[in-house]
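Intended use. Records like the one below are meant for learning the mapping from a protein sequence to its folded structure. Do not use them to infer anything beyond what is encoded.
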Amino acid sequence: MTLIASTRSKRRPAAPPQPPRLDADLPRVSSDPIAEAFTSRVPLMPWLDKRPVPRVEIADVWRGLCDSSPDSGKRLAYVHVPFCANHCLFCGFYRNKYRYQESARYVQALIDEVRRDADMQCVGKAPIHALYLGGGTPTALETVDLVRLIEVLRSELPLAADCELTLEGRILHFDDEKVDACLEAGINRISIGVQSFDTKVRQQQGRRASGPEAERFIADLIARDSAAVVIDLMYGLPDQDQAVWSRDIDTALSLGPDGLDIYCLAMFPGTPLHRAVTNGKLAPPASLAEQARLYERACERLAGAGWHQVSNSHWASCTRERNLYNLLIKAGAETLAFGSGAGGSLGDYSYSVDADLPGYLQAGREGRKAITGMLRSDEHQPLRDWVTGMLETARLDIAELLRRWSGLNARRAGLEALLSSWQQAGLAEYHGEIVTLTTAGRFWSTNLIAGLKQELTHSIGAPTVPDVT
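Structure written out for the chain above:
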């Protein structure tokens, strides 16, 4: 497909040598693209193409951001609860064991942080379209504290009238009283980390409830018909073969949730799962080719059931499920962050709140935001975010890409070759000016995103972020 010429980019200073090209943008042509297009999946690192702000500068930069005007686009808020009842084997994000005496103290620190930030100009009155309470395990908090937090978030932040308010949780500690109290407080979307309905698979990963107990909990939650209910499943776990995975999908469909997330297991070094597999205590997880087959099976089964694929990893059974937070954050939406371990973004900057709980609490006692890290983007980050957001929905508008990519003239042939390689490898199809990903392309979407971003880097040269030192 020949691309229309775009306007000539402005002349830039000579750039330093470019990084070597990734295998990410060179798919192999084979008769089995979902299993053989690449030899590995490329993770998307949100800090790439960004420059760290020196620690001595962070406080001054933060003060400047606080006085800035809110972004004109759709905005998000993320609230982090860094406690879990136990460390699930597959998880690389565990921080603090939950103890009931921590609940009131932490929630009060969160409320104080929200109220301080609510007065900042950067929060303003521009509406927040999706708010996500994640973790960790937010539903581990005591009912009175969790409800108090939800009520303060609703009263202090400028939430849109149709704001998506998601509560992430797990079955343990989430009893009927707590569920009903959260719904009454205003939660309109609940995402439950089930991972698998198979009791053996669940319990060897540290999930305490059995498969039938998980089914009953989800069924009771759905029966309330008071909020969108989303089930999170994971594929590729040890002992989760095609038969187990097919039962997981069928069980989820039979329960009738509003949304379904399916995530591929990523076994990180240092996690309990990695150690258990390395020491021979658990069977190895699925191979890359086996993961591809599990993903393919889910796509076929959900499409056959009439579900709509909202993103590469998310499906909806009805219009009540929007998956708004996840879609917007992947497209680079401005995000206000609260809580120990939270991450957010304002303008050209992304920032992280202290993941060390004592440090976070001490900062709160001193009346300051516990910012411990900050990155600055270059002027091309909006284009990278747009590319990521588009391909996350398996679609790329070529005409819009040409309009946004002012430096395309110099690399048009490279872009055409890249997109053509996707088509030849069975990862994408052309429909006029629209490129859509096939099921195989969706499975390998992170590779395709990384490849297109690299083509962008070769087109525009090295980032021109001003040196903040």
